[in-house]
Amino acid sequence: MLIMSAIDTDLQLHLRRSQCIDAFVAIEFEVSAINARLCPGHDSELISQKIKRLKAVAASSNYSKKQRATVHEVLPEIEAILPLRHDLVHGTLSVLKAPDLTIAAFVNIRETTKLGSTARLFTASSLEELAQQAKTLAARLRAAAEKPRTPQPNASTEAS
Fold first, then answer.
1. Which residues contact 148 (CB under 8 A, 6 or more apart)?
2. Residue 36: pLDDT above 60?
3. Which residues contact residue 21 at a Cβ distance below 8 angstroms, ignoring those fewer than 6 apart?
4. How does pLDDT run across 126-159, given as a tens digit for each residue?
5. Which contacts of 65-73 are long-range, i.e. CB under 8 A and separated by 24 or more positions?
6. What are phi and psi of 91, to 5 degrees?
7. What pLDDT score does 54 carry?
8. What is the pLDDT of residue 159?
């Protein structure tokens, strides 16, 4: 295992970006899995469209009120970080260095005009924090989507 402090800061930024993208893929996987179960036939939609579709799904025998409430709690948190995902995925990474600070600047081609560009800036630690946040959101969606387990009768119940 590599120790991050021993890795060049430029490489750290690239590694952290990769970790963020992997974490966002986990979110997309969970959103897609829930969508496939509850409203099949929309596999090719963008994640934002799938989120919108999930918000409209009513509770049912396949999707309890508790599951729906948990998913509805997580979806706005995902929507809040999607612009960051877009910049990480669709932006070019430039490393900016100052004497005591190295920053990753992402310029999203979709946000560039002939008059200028807007950059989103991250440190290695903020990219790490974003990746962790995305992983946590994916895990919360996965847990919400699991069907409640039916309690198994124990031996003393069966014997009576």
1. 64
2. yes
3. 85, 88, 89
4. 999 999 999 999 999 999 988 765 555 665 555 5
5. 67/144, 67/145, 70/140, 70/143, 70/144, 71/34, 71/141, 71/144, 71/145
6. -105, 155
7. 93
8. 52
Residue 82: closest CA among 43, 108, 115: 108
Query: What residues have CB less than 8 Å from 140, skipping those under 6 apart?
Result: 70, 74
Rounded to the nearest 10 degrees, what angle do helices 9-38 and 124-145 cross at?
A: 20
Confidence of residue 56 (pLDDT cuts 50, 70, 90): very high
Q: Which residues contact 54 (CB under 8 A, 6 or more apart)?
A: 31, 34, 35, 38, 39, 71, 75
Tell me 43's DSSP state. Answer: T
Q: For residue 8, give the amino acid letter.
A: D
* 118 in Cβ contact with 111 (< 8 Å): yes
Q: What is the pLDDT of residue 150?
A: 56
